[in-house]
Amino acid sequence: MTRILVFISVVVLTGNALLAQEPIIPIVQGNYLVGGTQGGKWLKPARVPLGASPKFRSVRNDTDDTTILTGQTDEKWDACNENRIVRFRSRDDEDDDQLPGLFIGERAGWNLIPRRPTSLDTGDAAITDAVTTFLRSKGITRSPTKIKEAISVDLDGDGTAEMIITGHYYRRWDEFELSAGDYSFALLRVGSGPSARNILLDGQFFDQRIDADYAEHSIVAVADLNGDGRMEIAIRSTHSESDRQMLFEFQKDKAVMIFDESCGG
User: Fold this and answer.
1) What is the mean pLDDT of the chain?
2) Helix/strand number for the chain, H first, E second
């Protein structure tokens, strides 16, 4: 009995030691430190250390550029004291750029884009019909169907591609007044044909006039951010006076929000 307990203790201690040796890799989205990863596990921002000049790889789906960027930490950026901010210096300018993309610590040694997303025609009749049906399920029956982005990518490597769609429609952009029928969304569509399912990542849908701020959703990037071979979805929701960055993982046919950081009201 004593030997068994000792053996178990050694295994547990060894496992913890190995995890401790894994580097903590920060993840920055839209200049916010949204979190990090260590040994395939997700870490909240408070558990992710940052040096004065951390180095990152830019994660993009439209280029194979792997240029290393040096970040500048700014823990007390005036607009967002509650967020940990990483700002990136322009290659040709001494001013800091507010880059809207996705960045991961340079020590991420795996293939960040194991499967390349494909851009789809936002005017495709099948996609438009699917989104129109989805909007009707949210009470949007009279507004036009407006699709901003549509991409196809195999998120979990099972050989079947999922679809990510964003769109929005607002009758007015200049006022803090939203009308009945206004909407914005980021949608994950799983499967194809009659068996396809819609998973709402984030959105707002209005069936009456309301004094509120509009939102505009967009796809930042789709990438494997913890080295497990599955690809996460980075979504941005932009408002007139605020900004929200969200990161989702897809597992067992469900989308789970991993990180959610925002700035502004």
Assistant:
1) 85
2) 2, 17
Residue 265 has pLDDT above 90, yes or no: no
Find, among 172, 168, 198, 173, the residue nearest to 183 by Cα: 168
pLDDT, tens only, 100-131: 689 999 999 999 999 999 999 999 999 999 99
Can you read off the two tokens belonging to residue 216?
A: 């505009």
Separation CA 253–CA 265 (nearest Å): 33
pLDDT band with cut points at 50, 70 and 90 for residue 218: very high
Q: What pLDDT band is residue 87 in, cutting at 50, 70 and 90?
A: confident
Residue 111 covered by a domain: no
Structural contact between residues 56 and 69, judged by C-beta atoms closer than 8 angstroms: yes
Q: Are residues 147 and 54 in the same domain?
A: no
144 and 179 housed in the same domain: yes
Other residues' Cβ atoms within 10 Å of the Cβ of residue 36: 25
What is the span of the domain harbouring residue 27? Answer: 2-105
The strands making up 254-264's β-sheet, listed across from edge to edge, are 216-223, 232-238, 242-251, 254-264
> Of 105, 139, 155, which residue constitutes the final position of a domain?
105
How many domains are contained in the chain? 2
